[in-house]
Amino acid sequence: MRDQRVVIVGGSSGMGLRVAQLVVAAGGRVVIGGRDPDRLAQAVATLGDRAESRRVDNTDKTSIAAFFDGIGGFDHLFTPGSSQLSGRIDEIDDDTAESPFRSKFWGQYYAVKHALPHLAKTGSIVLMSGAYSQRPLAGAAAYVACNSAIEGLARALAVELAPIRVNAISPGLIDTELWQKRPKEAREQAHARYASLSTLQRVGTVDEAADAVLFLMRNTYTTGSALFTDGGYTLR
Ligand SMILES: NC(=O)c1ccc[n+]([C@@H]2O[C@H](COP(=O)([O-])OP(=O)(O)OC[C@H]3O[C@@H](n4cnc5c(N)ncnc54)[C@H](OP(=O)(O)O)[C@@H]3O)[C@@H](O)[C@H]2O)c1
Fold first, then answer.
1. Which terminus of the chain, N or C, has less C-beta within 10 A?
2. CA 177 to ligand 1 centroid distance, Å
3. Domain CATH for 45
4. Domain membership of residue 34 as a residue range
C-alpha cells in the first residue's frame, strides 16, 4: 500500500478506521469520511499527517457528491459507513424498513458513482456487505436483502468498471464500536448466539476484518468476489 491513496467513507470508527490505520502503517495515505466532525478529528489525530478527513452523510446524495468534489486522485475506495435500523416486517415502520437500502445500498452506489472520476484505473473498490446476506436471522429482512443486493452490485460493477476491480467484504459479527455502544447484556447475548452459530465458535475481531479488506485492495486478480470473514457462519 506504499504511496497508495485510499478513501474510506465511514473511516472514523470500527472496520473503516482499522483499515485506515493499516494503510497508513503500510506507507499509504487516507481520506476518511463520516458525519460527526469530532469523531473525524479524533481519528485523524491518531492517524497522523498522512490522513485527512471530510464530512459526509451517505443518506444524502448531495453530501456524497460534495465529499468527492475536488478530492483529488486516489487508488482505492472502501465504503463501510452506514446508519440503518432493522426489525421484523410486521413490526417496523416504512422509514425503518427502508433505512438499510437508503444508507448502505444507495449510499455505496452513489459513493462509487462520484468516486469514479477520481479513481485510478489500476485501483479497486471494496463494498461493505455482511454474512447475513447468505444466512439470514429473523428480524432483519430488509437488512439481509440489502446485503445480498450489495454482493450483486459488486459483481455487476466488476463487469461494468473493469479494469477497476470491485469486491465486497461480508463479515460475520465483528466486535467494533457499533457493538460496544450497545447495552452490555444485549451485546453479550448477541455475541454468544453468533459464536454458537458459527463454525469457529466465536465472534471476529476488527483486525481480522480489516486484514480481509486490505487483501481485496492488494490482490490484483480478484474482482467480483464477496469475501466472507465470518468464522464459518455461512457454512452451517
Ligand atoms: N460490526 C459488525 O458486526 C458488522 C457485521 C457485518 C457487517 N457490518 C457492516 O459494517 C459496516 C461498519 O460497521 P462497523 O461495525 O465498523 O461500524 P462503526 O464502528 O459504527 O463505524 C461506522 C462508521 O461509519 C460512519 N457512518 C455511519 N453512518 C454514516 C452515514 N450515514 N454516512 C457516512 N458515514 C457514516 C461512522 O461515523 P459517523 O457515525 O460519525 O457518521 C463510522 O465512521 C456497516 O455497514 C455494517 O452494516 C458490521
1. C
2. 9
3. 3.40.50.720
4. 5-174+205-231
